[in-house]
Here is the input.
Amino acid sequence: MMDISVPTPRQPVNILVVDDMREQHLVMRTVLEELQENVITVASGREALKAVLEQSFAVILLDVNMPGMDGFETASLLRSYRRTARTPIIFVTAYVDEAEMKRGYSLGAVDYISSPVVPEILRSKVRVFVEMYRMNVELLARAAEREAFLLAEANRVVAERARQRADFLANASHVLTRSLEVGTTLQHIVELASTELADIAFVAVMGTGDVPTDITSRSARRDRTNAPDLAGFESRTLSVAFPLVSRFVDQLLRERAENDSKPVDDFLTETVAGTANGGIQRVSAFPLLTANQKGVILLCSYGQGMSDEQIMLSREFVSRAAIAIENAMLFSAIRDGDRRKNEFLAMLAHELRNPLAPIANAAAVLRSATPGDAEVLRWAGEIVATQVEHMVRIVEDLLDVSRIARGAVTLRKELVPLSVVIGRAVETSRPHLIRRAQHLTCDEGAVDTAVNGDVVRLAQIVSNLLNNASKFTPQGGHISLSTRFSDGIASITVADDGQGIDPAFMPHIFELFAQADTSLHRPQGGLGIGLTLVRHLTELHGGRVECRSDGLGKGAAFAIRLPGAMAERHTTALAPVVHLNRKQAIRVLIVDDLAASSESLEALLNIYGYIVRCAADGESALRMAAEMRPDVVVLDIGLPGMSGYEVARCLRQDSGCSECLIIALSGYGQEDQIRRAFEAGVDQYLVKPADTSALLDAIAATERRHGSDGIATR
Here is the structure.
């Protein structure tokens, strides 16, 4: 096949002619015209120097004898320029002197031509240098092209490696986000690492199980054969051949959380020679540091080298792996919290239905009983009172948890003798112990100790511990309560010989809604919030709570540590006794929109001989108050239309009721609502369902204020 491609036209090159005689310029152009190159003529050495600064020349024809700057001086200056340091110079002279010739050659001249020139000789010599120049230019161009090609190829390789790294990291991010299971995430990490970063990869994380010190590990090989487990690899290979990495891993995984050692945040690489370690010659350990866990990734290779690029890629992968593990742990925590919430709701429904069932039964018995049957009334009253007390405890615990979560718990701190706290707590928990025929032993070794705290909340802490011990101690079991004081710390310890605590459940013992047994047929009831309240209330008092158990069936002990001080013992004064036959003249106004509540309270107060009237709203209450001038007003806060706060203010403005006792009886128990009630003029605040003895005691105090004969002095 004939080549019909058109050759690229050859670019002309520059030839410089330097001669002070103008007619020589024409001669040179005519002689060199046949070469078809650019012939540039100048008349002096200075013009020649200026020309070479502006253009490149293949050859310079230089006259020797020129006025001012001669040819030799011009040649010397041309050789000092970088552009013309190697440009061929042909001297043109009318006569050739041997000394001048030597001088010219010493200045870098390549030839001498005598004038007048022979055209053929001049053209031949100039052609040689022109072709050499053209060949040199082409070589330089090809070298530049080769350099540009190699640079482009290097950039392509770099870009390809960068793309591969980006693809690997993108795939890693995708794979690691597909599962939020901790075990699956760890397996994905070692599989990805063994594919791109190592021949064998290990990952180990501490704190993913129920026990904070448990270590979960996974491993994988590049060839997908069975990989060794971490424990065996540590004992047989790592500790023997790679001692530095072994200590590094031990520091990462096995130092305690409370240890104050400096955290490890950089990787460590160790290499060995030979193949005695299963072929492994390099192990690199990268720390996995997350918010709540400690871990390590081990990259094991059969080669020794690890480039900067591999280190950078490994660091980026490890950071993404740490994020994936943290996300899996957060999901696990959320899932466990949701499970506990569902279990709690089921338990709450169960615990509320338990007291409602006997109340409903008592109501059915009352409806079916013969009117005036005192025995049935007494039995039903005891059933209802007992079950209402149980429900009140449940609601109070829930409200306490809510207050603590919102930071709304207010402590009324004062210096409280520890004996008073213990006495109140034991009295509160006594019914539980009696029902289960359990033996309580008290050892008040710190009888002269006082703590700065809220006596009600402190008694609640100890009572919750006693109730918890009673709950998990069998019928007829033994419970001990002891107090001690040492180094400014007062301790209260409640121990039992009951069923004990599983070591796996111990880290969760004070968590909200956490219970070891959540089955429907569990023998103990409760919502799993008592010990949570103990911990939070203790911490609010500046103390701490500790739990100890040797295992299931070996009992448990809870210890409260509080800041304390020695104090004098005081004998608590007994409250005066008020007899029932001194209540006839006390007038009580009940204001409640719930008919069942007001009617049942009216029946109770009538039994005790009080004069009682009821109102269902604020306006009717004010009218009745103006008529009867009550000594006591039992006031609901949540009334239709006019609230209880407004009713209290109006009563205080009425001269006939300004001195009466106003007792708020409401289902609202928040701190700000109680405060608003007191600001409105309420004297006492009771939360429904209130303790009837507290209500009766408050009314009895009003009776005593009216005179010993029981007749109002208003």
User: Anything to note?
Assistant: The mean pLDDT is 79. The radius of gyration is 51 Å. The first strand starts at residue 14 and ends at 18. Residues 580-705 form a domain with the Rossmann fold fold (CATH 3.40.50.2300).
